Task: structure prediction
Amino acid sequence: MLAISNHQSSPPFDAPRLVTSMPLVKAKGLSKRYGTIEAAAGVDVEAYPGEVLGIVGESGSGKSTILRMLNMEELPDSGSYTLNLPDIAGEDLFQLDRFARRNVQILNIGVVYQNPHLGLRMRFTSSGNVAERLLLTGERTFATLREAARNSLSISEFPLQRMDDPPRVLSGGMQQRVQLAKALALKPALLLLDEPTTGLDVSVQALVLDTLKRLQRERRMTIILVSHDLGVIRTLADRVMVMRHGRVIEQGLTDQILEDPQNAYTQQLVHAKL
Result:
């Protein structure tokens, strides 16, 4: 389904491949330094259509840095990135100018942040937040924008009687649903999730995960999910890659990695969650 390996700096391993289609996401040799800190060291990522890839590791492992680069919020010091989509297949997205990168991001990538303040305007209405995404495509008709926002909020299982409430008065779980509706408004090929359930209580977390599972099943989206919570990874991910100090140290099918981890660090992570 997907294959991920670390570029040069990880121990050699062969990623099992379960399909023969072309990967949707292909990033090679992603490296990023912040001063003396090596946040990513030659990381390769491949994700296939309709697949969920989980990236797990402790704080500072580099997993969120990888996600930001895949969303083109940050550029790597070195590395390449392609999306196998019409009009841009084979193009290194990091080599595009800022306007072109932004256009690719708007039309093809949705993102849900751990902190809703990064993804939402807290004083706009919830429907207005979703409509803002649609405005970026040039749509200006109020009725069209409102109906599209309503549909997207409904898909994310947001209570429509609250669509005119601003996110600042909503619970954490409801804020995440608004973020999800905004991310899905333009039907992206790739959905990036950065710790989407962190800070939510167990019951709300379960509801959000159920929504994500249903949407992935119905839309067959490619999802890349970053989480420190192995329970979330087990629930959603088909495959998982484990990061430490900016490097991939182990990867494979989710059940395989969580039931029989080979790397000592992965064993430590798994046993700590038992």
User: Anything to note?
Assistant: The radius of gyration is 18 Å. Residues 134 and 172 are 23 Å apart (CA to CA). The first strand starts at residue 25 and ends at 34.
